[in-house]
């Protein structure tokens, strides 16, 4: 048995809060992607709050410099009312805190949640001066039912779920800081009514064809027909009695009860797509259950032709289609048994204790169609973790909190063999950090072949932390990544005679804002890059990104570069 299975795996079985494979299946009411924006200018501002256009915290996060405008609210000790609910709602907002600030969120029932004083929130809170996101799902109480905090998430990580709120009063939802200052922006709010918005007006016809995992609807139409019939609701169960491998083409008339914009959500285990009145609304692609895709359509009141294509994957079948409008909860257009509750499976996780933990796995980044098959994830007892692609020596992601969910690697047959961070990851440039450029205008390569970069192995120190070794363009490289306070420090040492000037690309993103000498805020203050303020830095625009490059001075055949990622 693998030594990780005997020594390094913790199975969490908690009867009240089992984390399920595909847990999103149980939460379709949370699936709406976009929330209507709340105008900050229309909020009642108490004393100490002001409306500004931009905010630039100092490097230490102790103070905030502002510019005139109307897109951000800044304030402190006075509570700011974001909404006074009359029904169930979902709320999202971005927040940026000064140093030592404690954000307090007070729910409509009066419960106050301190972000600095709540352990699970404090562990996930980003460094001062960085934007982060808060999500709240709330169900109002009635005479017969208490209010419910359905979900509270920070930076995409759920920290509270299904919490009963005993107080029966209904007041405003407010935020404030006990200490320090706070800035908020991008406030979105949606009422979540259970109102029906559309329904099938005729039976749904279906055609089952031979062959599973067919990636094109047009190709499926050319396959041998196994069965044709009708059903009252969308369901993959019409395939029962057919061969294990199949594809289904559905078509029916959906009656929109009023004119307006509609959002559709498709959840399936396999290939799927949705067309409305002949127009592709959800593009055909492959997803596993719990990875829904979305599309919107503007419909007139009355019937519309809805076509759904489904070609199952071997891993787990299931098919569900939801429809909603602004102010409503997503409504299923499928039978409940077609999108079954996943089997309860305890999370298989890896937890670093006294030493670092190293796990090799597949990793698939958002937007990438293929897996990165040679990835190393490193978990530290300090709670700062990261993943490196050993083919490109790219530092792909870093996160804080708990380390790694390896359920998809080690449960049953271990498919799709993916490791998932147990905290919200900061995504980093997915290319090699080093390259020899012929001149400063040369574009950074997307990938390097084995003739340019060759991984040689790694050594492990007494704390279990690895130092990776590889060759690149005539130089031998050692690459050490270590936790350092609230940052991840990376030091690259080069020996040899590279053909030209080697550069280290320490950051690449949509924005690279210089906060102070040697400190840059990347991707709209998603994280900071910090390096020696005396270093010669090159900031350039290339391939639609702003890049921060550091040239490496090779003296007597040796050179080095060091930088830190603060988040």
Give a verbal description of the structure:
The protein is mainly beta and 567 residues long. The protein folds into 3 domains: 31-191, Jelly Rolls; 198-338, Jelly Rolls, CATH 2.60.120; 349-566, Beta-galactosidase, Chain A, domain 5 (Distorted Sandwich). 4% of the residues lie in helices and 50% in strands. It has 4 helices and 43 strands. An 8-stranded antiparallel β-sheet has the order 33-34-35-36-43-40-39-38, with no helix packed on it. The protein has a 7-stranded antiparallel β-sheet with strand order 2-3-12-5-8-9-10. Strands 13, 14, 15, 16, 18, 19 and 21 form a 7-stranded antiparallel β-sheet that branches. It comes from Spirosoma fluviale. This is PA14 domain-containing protein.
Task: List strands and helices in order, with pairings.
Blueprint (H helix, E strand, L loop, with lengths): L2 H5 L1 E4 L37 E8 L6 E12 L4 E4 L5 E9 L5 E4 L5 E3 L4 H6 L6 E9 L7 E8 L2 E9 L7 E5 L4 E10 L6 E3 L3 E7 L6 H5 L3 E7 L14 E11 L3 E9 L1 E7 L2 E9 L5 E7 L2 E11 L6 E6 L6 E2 L14 E4 L6 E7 L8 E8 L4 E6 L4 E7 L3 E2 L1 H4 L9 E2 L4 E2 L6 E4 L15 E8 L5 E7 L2 E10 L2 E10 L4 E9 L2 E5 L2 E4 L4 E5 L6 E5 L2 E7 L6 E9 L1
Antiparallel strand pairs: 1-24, 2-3, 3-12, 4-11, 5-8, 5-12, 6-7, 6-11, 8-9, 9-10, 13-16, 14-15, 14-16, 16-21, 17-20, 17-22, 18-19, 18-21, 22-23, 24-29, 25-26, 26-27, 27-28, 28-31, 29-30, 32-37, 33-34, 34-35, 35-36, 36-43, 37-42, 38-39, 39-40, 40-43, 41-42
Protein name: PA14 domain-containing protein
